[in-house]
């Protein structure tokens, strides 16, 4: 057919013109515009939108963004110490129920308005108007009132001593301060704020929901000013896409825990094209055993599982050496947690011996142990979208099969996993610590009261569950430091001996950045990204 | 009986509310099958103990404590007044956020639609005219591949090639034409593969019909036969498929939006499902259903215009 003579060139021309048309404009506009060659700006990728930047509420606010704009009265450092921030000093009464904070006088909000006692009280009032949403923070249960002593002094009055007050005040939310111009009508900050006005080193200057947030240096900042002028947080929901954007130089760095998969992290690291760094541990990945019913109500079964898994190999092969093996629930730098506990090391024979002793025996020809006709079968829930939990669960399933324990795996979302644990419908869940500054007291709080974490429910089957709860209450309200050290040692030892948790690895912030960036140190914090230290080589 | 196109449209538009009613009821019921209810999710997200009392209090606040039928009727009354409810999570009006994100998704879907038209028709014709020649084999291989590769993988493959290796397009975001190319292509390719195959077989079938032979005997040019007769006949079935495609593209954009960080409806939907944000999911499904039904209607109208038999079918019988 004659027509075909014309059609082929037409199609080829069309296809080329579509691509070429785009490419010619793109190489000028597209790529170079998105590549980050601006010496004054640093671009980072983040999977979720920064949110409304409300200092007093939780999701969808991203902690990392809240921490850029708002500051706390005191600051928690990676070594566990607490230093002044918006409060230059504080006095604690003898009975430890009254905290007097002396505010800095040189602090101004980013809009130039004053930071003073009236504003601090206004913030506390707005937060405490919704106590129920902050009850997870133990201090909220104990605050009686917050009063102004003078223009730059406030007093926080508690009903009884509660030692972690400073730690909780240091946390990224809700006890951070919004400028007067940011308050909505009726000061109902739990619903919304008028504008994100903070005292922090950064100000939100441009924002497109689900696309990006641009932060610029707060020229009114009272402290040391950041080196770089702007930080752009690009919202990239997919972790693979974050890696690709970084490789394509559309991002200057990737920073955080679980922002990209550990496979991708080691791939980029091994390419030797980029600088990488890992922070000190910030949290612990563990398994939480449900002792309420079933085989895990028996200590020997819990211990046997811990002996049966070659943890070193598992952590090394799945995290590619980016996470350290954890043998205790808390990393040494966590306050009160540096105690001597005998680690449970891989010993398959010991695992089998423990199960035999507990009466879970392997009948001839059977592959699964049983006791009184009941097979030793356990259910484990993992988060289906988590790139680490699934391979770990599968590996453990194989290891446990070797000693005659059947592990049934179920992928679910976080909510389903927690609900099943609390309703006693599952045996094992993945679990992680919150990290500083709320550990270890936050963990203690969670363990002693029913809340969203599931630890309280999981430990109900322990013979000393009541004793643990009592000790936890004593240590939170006790005033004697030595006694507190002893109580923490007792509790952590009891948890360890009861094998309620199976610590797997210490999680870290992983960082990859381009060669043109100056070196800086990542922090062991879930929300404080050290933007102020970041800079590009000239 | 002769039925005018206007009458046909009117009838179809009148059935629209019933379709939407059915869709909304199904969505309303199915979303409640997802385990863990919104009140509990909200409490857990706020790290508050989901005790029976706390859950009950929140249910009352959200209105999920009422019987399902009452909940549905309340929602329906709201929708009739263009009030699509308030998001459980952001506490903002659902419609506000969804309609703000809708243009981005439509932009993506329309771009993909244009790519489908522009690429699949010439490729399909070419493949049919060069039946079993090397060019036909290449095109068929291309269409089989594009249909079989999963969307997310195709997306990453294109990103790897065109962003990382050749440095032509940015990997994420929205703004310039360059940002649009890869997501639109990823969304379009599976359908292009399907259409190329379809157009090819339709044209081959048409070319074997008697009218083509008669036309050739009458001395008509091949190009005239192809353009005036063969393609016109092939276009009749193609329009119906295209009508369905636009709806599919809108719904299918979810994964593409995730891979390319495209700020459209799809990403919002995923977050809302995880957060059990019922009003958002309900409103989303309603919007997609309306677009789906309307694009189908357009296709049907076009179908009638191209194939006048349909309008007079009753009379001839």
TrEMBL record, chain A:
Q: Which Pfam families match?
A: SBP_bac_5
Any transmembrane segments, and where? none
InterPro entries assigned: CntA-like (IPR011980), Peptide/Ni-bd (IPR030678), SBP_5 (IPR039424), SBP_5_dom (IPR000914)
What is the protein's name according to its record? Nickel ABC transporter, nickel/metallophore periplasmic binding protein
Q: Which UniProt keywords apply?
A: Signal
Residue ranges of the Solute-binding protein family domain?
A: 81-451
- Annotated GO MF terms: heme binding; nickel cation binding; peptide transmembrane transporter activity
């Amino acid at each position: 057919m004659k027509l075909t003579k014309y059609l082929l060139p037409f199609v080829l021309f069309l296809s080329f013109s579509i691509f070429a048309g785009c490419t010619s404009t793109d190489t000028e506009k597209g790529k170079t515009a998105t590549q980050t060659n601006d010496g004054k700006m640093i671009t980072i990728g983040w999977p979720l939108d920064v949110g409304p930047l409300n200092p007093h509420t939780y999701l969808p606010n991203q902690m990392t963004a809240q921490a850029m704009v708002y500051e706390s009265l005191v600051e928690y450092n990676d070594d566990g110490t607490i230093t002044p921030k918006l409060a230059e000093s504080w006095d604690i009464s003898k009975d430890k129920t009254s905290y007097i904070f002396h505010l800095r006088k040189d602090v101004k909000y980013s809009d130039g308005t004053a930071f003073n006692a009236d504003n601090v009280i206004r913030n506390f009032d707005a937060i405490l108007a919704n106590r129920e949403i902050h009850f997870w923070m133990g201090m909220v249960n104990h605050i009686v009132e917050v009063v102004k002593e003078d223009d730059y002094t406030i007093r926080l009055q508690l009903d009884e001593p509660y030692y972690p007050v400073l730690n909780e005040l240091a946390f990224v939310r809700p006890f951070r301060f919004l400028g007067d111009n940011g308050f909505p009508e009726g000061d109902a900050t739990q619903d919304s704020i008028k504008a994100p006005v903070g005292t922090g080193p950064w100000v939100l200057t441009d924002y497109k929901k689900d696309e990006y947030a641009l932060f610029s240096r707060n020229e009114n900042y009272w402290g040391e000013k950041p080196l770089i002028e702007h930080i752009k947080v690009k919202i990239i929901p997919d972790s693979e896409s974050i890696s690709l954007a970084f490789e394509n130089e559309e991002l200057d760095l990737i920073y955080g825990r679980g922002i990209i998969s550990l496979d991708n992290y080691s791939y980029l690291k091994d390419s030797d094209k980029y600088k990488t760094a890992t922070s000190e541990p910030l949290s612990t990945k563990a398994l939480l055993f449900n002792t309420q019913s079933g085989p895990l109500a028996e200590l020997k079964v819990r211990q046997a599982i811990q002996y049966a898994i070659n943890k070193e190999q598992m952590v090394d092969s799945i995290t590619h050496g980016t996470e350290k093996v954890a043998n205790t629930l808390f990393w040494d730098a966590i306050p009160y947690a540096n105690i001597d506990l005998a680690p449970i090391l891989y010993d398959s024979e010991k695992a089998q011996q423990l199960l035999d002793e507990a009466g879970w025996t392997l009948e001839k020809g059977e592959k699964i142990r049983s006791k009184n006709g009941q097979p030793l079968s356990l259910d484990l829930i993992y988060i289906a979208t988590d790139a680490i939990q699934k391979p770990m669960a599968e590996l453990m399933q194989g290891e446990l099969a070797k000693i005659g324990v059947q592990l049934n795996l179920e992928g679910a979302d976080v909510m389903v996993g927690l609900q099943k644990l609390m309703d006693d419908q599952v045996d094992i869940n993945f679990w992680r610590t919150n990290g500083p500054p709320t550990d270890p007291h936050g963990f203690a709080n969670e363990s002693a009261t029913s809340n969203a974490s599931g630890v309280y429910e999981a430990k109900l089957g322990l013979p000393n569950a009541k004793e643990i709860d009592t000790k936890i209450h004593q240590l939170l309200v006790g005033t004697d430091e030595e006694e507190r050290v002893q109580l923490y040692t007792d509790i952590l030892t009891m948890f360890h001996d009861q094998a309620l948790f199976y610590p797997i690895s210490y999680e870290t912030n992983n960082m990859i950045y381009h060669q043109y960036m100056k070196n800086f140190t990542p922090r062991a914090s879930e929300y404080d990204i050290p933007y102020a230290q970041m800079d590009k080589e000239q | 009986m002769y039925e005018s196109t206007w009458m046909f449209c009117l009838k179809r538009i009148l059935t629209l509310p019933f379709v939407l009613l059915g869709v909304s009821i199904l969505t309303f019921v199915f979303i409640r099958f997802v385990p863990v209810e919104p009140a509990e999710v909200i409490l857990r997200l706020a790290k508050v103990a989901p005790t029976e009392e706390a859950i009950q209090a929140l249910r009352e606040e959200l209105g999920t404590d009422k019987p399902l039928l009452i909940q549905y009727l309340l929602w329906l009354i709201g929708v009739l007044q263009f009030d699509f409810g308030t998001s459980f999570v952001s506490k903002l009006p659902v419609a506000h956020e969804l309609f703000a994100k809708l243009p981005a998704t439509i932009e993506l879907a329309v771009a993909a639609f244009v790519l489908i038209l522009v690429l699949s028709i010439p490729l399909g014709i070419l493949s049919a005219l060069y039946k079993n020649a090397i060019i036909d084999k290449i095109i068929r291989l291309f269409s089989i591949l594009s249909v079989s590769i999963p969307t997310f993988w195709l997306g990453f493959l294109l990103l790897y090639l065109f962003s990382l290796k050749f440095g032509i397009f940015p990997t994420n975001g929205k703004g310039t034409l360059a940002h649009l190319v890869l997501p639109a292509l990823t969304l379009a390719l599976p359908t292009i593969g399907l259409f190329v195959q379809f157009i090819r077989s339709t044209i081959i079938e048409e070319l074997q019909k008697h009218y083509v032979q008669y036309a050739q005997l009458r001395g008509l040019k091949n190009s005239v036969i192809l353009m005036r007769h063969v393609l016109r006949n092939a276009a009749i079935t193609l329009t119906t498929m295209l009508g369905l495609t636009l709806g599919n593209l809108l719904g299918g954009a979810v994964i593409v939006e995730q891979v390319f960080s495209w700020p459209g409806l799809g990403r919002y939907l995923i977050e809302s499902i995880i957060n059990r944000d019922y009003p958002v999911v309900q409103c989303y499904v309603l919007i997609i259903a309306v677009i789906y039904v309307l694009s189908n209607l357009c296709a049907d109208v076009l179908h009638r215009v191209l194939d006048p038999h349909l309008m007079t079918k009753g009379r001839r019988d």
